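Homework-ish question, so no full write-ups if that breaks the rules, but can someone show me the predicted structure for this set?
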Amino acid sequence: DGGITQSPKYLFRKEGQNVTLSCEQNLNHDAMYWYRQDPGQGLRLIYYSQIVNDFQKGDIAEGYSVSREKKESFPLTVTSAQKNPTAFYLCASTKETWGEQYFGPGTRLTVT
Amino acid sequence: RKEVEQDPGPFNVPEGATVAFNCTYSNSASQSFFWYRQDCRKEPKLLMSVYSSGNEDGRFTAQLNRASQYISLLIRDSKLSDSATYLCVVNSRDGNNRLAFGKGNQVVVIP
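A: Not a homework solution, just the prediction itself:
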């Protein structure tokens, strides 16, 4: 079945540690996105990539890094520089410009 | 002005009733409009795209008003399973391949 997978579903880390969230898609989509959602808030864009080996900062990129070495994969690293990393992280992909985006199940990160 | 604005609610709806809500957007050049459904602690899922002529999918009807820059969603004969947050989504004003998400309209269907 085609889709987007994110792992793990829940992740717990100590403050000061970097952590990498996985996102994989087999939809053959060119564009991939990372969002963050806080309770009662809308989705905020962290980074996005429209093609392999290229990516752009979104609205809240500080404290995060990404890579896009393969079309299928777009991992997100939450660094120790991110002041408030505890959140629900969602990965999405889309086939065409301004088209609908399809989401993975998300990773709920808790940093204490 | 925010790119996409929605009244968060909650909208408490008796089972079987009709509920409707609007979403306003700021970019007059927007070309893509969507409604997504998000259940508690889950990922958003596409409910329907919104076309200029409006569109209907079963009990759900979406409309686009370009002159007033809003889109609407109407749910007829509400079911308990319709309880969710409905996100309004519009392509971003910065011209890149990005979407702007509203905070959502929370719908609670009451037995």
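Now go work out the reasoning yourself. Hint: Chain A has no helices and eleven strands.
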